[in-house]
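TL;DR need structure tokens for one chain.
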Amino acid sequence: MARYTGPMSRKSRRLGVDLVGGDAAFEKRPYPPGQHGRGRIKESEYLLQLREKQKARFTYGVMEKQFLRYYKEANRRQGKTGENLLQLLECRLDNVVYRAGFARTRRAARQLVVHGHFLVNGHKVDIPSFQVSAHDIIDVREKSLEMTPFIVARETHTERHIPAWMQALPGRMRILVHSVPVRAQIDTQVTEQLIVEYYSKK
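>> reply
TL;DR here they are.
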């Protein structure tokens, strides 16, 4: 299963947004890496579009081919393509686990999913890209409840903001998905219309 394993702080600095969440290295140096990082570069329309696509891709930990498949599916659905794209990304199982506060980062959430610690509607799912739907119930497997990541998640859960489209029950380590998120409920710092413009020229 392909995934980006390089330095995320460098990507955050290149794209101008904290892709990890609480990245001290980015906060200390929020300008592009390299010798001329603080200099000004002329930003073309294409560069702005590409940057937004890369922001979304690295934020959710998706490779290029998979991201293109998400775009094609979003374009096929009714409604605004950009909003559909963000909905598909938000409804990935690893992202839902992260949003619910059961993992500190999306990378950590992905690893927990891959290791088979979650049940969706009573069935074990170990695919990070699994699409969660409205009214799904996600549980941590009983055998995994006393593992360190989940003990920490229970102890620190009050520190996390949980989106309105889901409900997290840390005492039972359960996530209730009430609905598919609308754009106003997605706080990812991405201008999705630029992504649509990027792919529409391909």
